[in-house]
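[step 3/7] inverse_fold.run input=structure_tokens len=276
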């Protein structure tokens, strides 16, 4: 059977400068094993499958796969899948808004001048001990400004701050040590940020999940947004990620009455069909 397929670059308007996601627009009828096999074949950090929702409030249901496992939520696949769906002619129940059903429940989205914005799922925080902090600093080869926190919003990112954006870009992490520190703290990966004035520079490392460095990470930036809200309150800002791996992603974070909205642009790079 032919199924509509898109490959979308997320957090950019320039093809090949963001973070790609593969989107199968006709996911109904595929088994979990088939979806996992397709995700292994695309060999991208995430592949998604758009399916009929099971909840009446939702416009669609999204299943999100890494090459090795299924995920409950991820930021750039959510934005990329919504972009692929809308650009294929899909009409949502309410103009300008989408409701996605996924592993964390219902995720609200809205369109605007700066692309698609996601209402981030609620997050849970867990602090680590001093021994784990030292292991993270040794893995990074840099000092942290505070003890990092495991922030779980469907993906568990151990998130910490270094002295500046320059310090983020200068990191040369030991990937084996990063993987060991992430496992030690029960995290999917380690997420580091620094400030360039009001611009936030981010890098996200998940080598034991198959992604040594995520080019532009939605859930990672969401974790940073929660971290910053705890430390300085709800101040809107912009973030940048990917320059250390030849990309140039831009993310917009807005706070609105307790909700964190994460947004960015997206562009189609491949359109066609797959047999499945």
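[step 3/7] decode complete -> sequence:
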């Amino acid at each position: 059977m032919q199924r509509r397929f898109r490959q979308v670059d997320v957090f950019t308007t320039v093809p090949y400068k963001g973070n790609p996601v593969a989107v199968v627009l006709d996911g109904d009828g595929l088994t979990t094993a088939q979806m996992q096999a397709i995700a292994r074949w695309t060999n991208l950090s995430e592949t998604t499958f758009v399916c009929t929702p099971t909840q009446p409030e939702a416009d669609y249901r999204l299943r999100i796969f890494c090459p090795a496992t299924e995920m409950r939520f991820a930021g750039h696949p959510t934005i990329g899948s919504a972009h692929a769906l809308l650009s294929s002619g899909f009409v949502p129940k309410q103009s300008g808004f989408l409701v996605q059903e996924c592993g964390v429940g219902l995720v609200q989205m809205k369109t605007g001048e700066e692309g698609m914005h996601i209402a981030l799922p609620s997050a849970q925080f867990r602090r680590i001990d001093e021994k784990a902090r030292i292991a993270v600093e040794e893995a990074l080869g840099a000092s942290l400004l505070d003890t990092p926190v495991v922030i779980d919003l469907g993906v568990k990112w151990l998130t910490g701050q270094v002295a500046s954006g320059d310090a983020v870009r200068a990191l040369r992490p030991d990937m084996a040590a990063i993987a060991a520190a992430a496992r030690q703290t029960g995290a999917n990966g380690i997420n580091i940020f620094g400030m360039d004035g009001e611009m936030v520079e981010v890098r996200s490392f998940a080598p034991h999940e198959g992604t040594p460095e995520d080019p532009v990470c939605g859930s990672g930036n969401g974790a940073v947004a929660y971290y910053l809200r705890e430390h300085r309150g709800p101040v809107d800002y912009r973030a940048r990620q990917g320059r250390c791996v030849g990309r140039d992603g831009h993310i917009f974070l807005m706070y609105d009455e307790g909700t964190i909205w994460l947004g960015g642009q997206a562009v189609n790079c491949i359109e066609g069909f797959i047999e499945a």
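[step 4/7] annotate
The mean pLDDT is 96.
The chain has two domains: 2-119+263-275, 124-258.
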